[in-house]
Protein 1
Amino acid sequence: MNKVKRTVRDILKLAEIELNGDRPCDLIVKDDRFYSAILSGGALALGETYMDGWWDCECIDQLVYMALRADLEHRIKPLKVLLPVMISKLANRQTRARAFRIGEHHYDLGNELYKRMLDKRMIYTCGYWKRAADLNQAQEDKLDLVCKKMQLQPGMKLLDIGCGWGGFAKFAAEKYRVEVVGVTVSGEQIELGSKMCEGLPVDLRLQDYRDVQTCGFDRVVSLGMFEHVGVKNYRTFMQVVDRCLHKDGLFLLHTIGANTTKESIDPWTDKYIFPGGMLPTQRQITHATEGVFVMEDWHNFGVDYDPTLTAWMENVDRHWPELAGLGYDQRFYRMWRYFLLSSAGSFRARRSQLWQVVYSKKGIGGGYQAVR
């Protein structure tokens, strides 16, 4: 065994992962170029070499869980991973001019993919599994949880920032009889979402959040969009919500969060999945809302993203013959599998969180009654 291979083996052993072992969580090398690539390329190389078929693992989610719990990512730090960090310090990667890039890169991959991957309402955020037995119920319960937290009443006007395919807007309009304006940077989402919401008081717009001019909304919600805002724009985002929200209104922020401050997401995710993405920390969110809002409730149910992501992967596998027929190739499948299952492992390891935070402008007299 050469030195490079031995080094990789010894690193994996720190997480109790066997090289070419026989357990579902063990890493099986298919191409010996993997060893030098992973030591020089770190997280980016790990994802790319999986896409290229240089290694395999039956349970990537468990492998990532074990690696993160053992803190392996801090044992391989190639110089090239510093580049995204340096860029993020110097530039605002989430400007208006770049806002639509994430829509084109990720959300415009094709509605047929997301129809087969997601639940019947096409909700692309974490489900709520407290009482749910399947994905459809977990998402239905999450949407209802959000409505109850915002204390929606018939006739209210609601702004949905990052509305996706309009799944939440449709639910709120149908079940709580509110009027909804939703904004997204994805043309594909607008096209399908507008059809899904036909006949309802729902107005979906292809628009950056900074360009929303309508004011006086009773409620504002943002489900799974804040991850694309970027730390340089957090304060601006909160000021936009403040401008749009009625003085007695409520704002609910639903976002993935990180335990520690990072200047960028990992380089593989930045390159292949969410260009310019960034996970906020509690401190960053609190700093952005200081003097703007009063925090009424903070709910963490990040563990629920693990079964959500697993269910999405099961749906992709179930419908893969159809997706392959639509033109999605094997490299895309491996990229998508790595994305979904490595994310599940991160939430399982508690490296990633899912927060729902409720804000008021001046504080609710008598206090806010938390809903779970």
Note: Residues 223 and 254 are 5 Å apart (CA to CA).
Protein 2
Amino acid sequence: MSIDAVTATRAYGLAVHAGAGSLDRTLLTARVESNIRTALEAAREAGFRLLERGASSIDAVEAAITVLEDCELFNAGVGSVYTATGGHELEAALMSGRHLAAGGAVRISTVKNPIRLARRIMERGHEVLLVGDAAEAVAREFDLEEVANSYFDTPGRLAEHQGALGAAAIDREWEGNSLLPMTEYGTVGAVAADQQGDVCAGTSTGGLVNKTDGRIGDSAVLGAGTYADNNGCGISATGQGEIILRLSLAKGINDRVIMRGSSLSLAVHEAVHNELSRYGGSGGVIAITSNSEVVCEFNTKAMFRACRTSRGEVGVAIFGAGFKDGDP
């Protein structure tokens, strides 16, 4: 029997997230909740179908995040928040655990799907992280879809921007469901393990509401919001970017697994509930091993997430723990 025939029997799976924050359950209408769940399931299935057919974890993560970027419910792609000056600056990263190949892009303003750009930067192999015009030049090199910055405008995000300028809280449901009653976060991400045991992680975001132009968060910074290593795990984080950056949260989880021999569940739990919480940070993490063990932890009231593995694990959740809904 060939090596390929043996490795093809490995378990495979994928998890996605679309942000964690202080969502008030009483403000989550049935219609908004249904739309969130539908979007999470669509992203999960887009990635999982590729894994079923033997595609790479890179393909699966890119496909899942693209679905979320194209949904205005979340703070990535078309649903991205406004900067302080009224524009949009997006960022994304993608990392493969096989050879630690990675690509990232920040201060993106005209590329429809930043996660696709992150992958092309990774595949070029010349650089790891590119900024602004240099990154968008790569998008043109690969004929990625370009849009006007106004493409990312949505009525709900505009109201959120205007409310933040006036120091007014906005927690209502807007027409079109473009603004959820959880405005702090909304970063999207995915982690996957394929039939060859290769892991991949990706994260995409519009950043913070009314952020200073040029502010870079954790999502596109390897080791902070995104990391993947076949010997450890793939991680995508969401939450307060500055604290996640200071902690190198994702790399810390991977190091716990490799150097300490910690289980994935313990490593993620310690990072979120001990380390992140100790420094006043809030947010969440999804993670996966090369054997398709999936874990989710968050220290906020809610986290939008979903998963599916070839072992039959499947779920979509907002409250509770893991990938099952329950009391916050």
Note: Confidence is low (pLDDT under 50) at residues 1-7, 167-178.
Protein 3
Amino acid sequence: MIAAITQYIEHEEARESFKQEAIDSWREYQETGLHLTGDEVKTWLRGWGTEAETDIPACHK
């Protein structure tokens, strides 16, 4: 039972952390307008593990 409670608490803490990160990201976007489009992210991710792999693209307005 202790293991189940511990696992539940860890899950909820991770969920809350993810939610807070999303809120912080949204707030930063509202303040700066900097972003990447979905297509830019997809293109970047498709390069992972290939010779075409690059660093994350720079955000823009």
Note: Residues 2-34 form one domain.
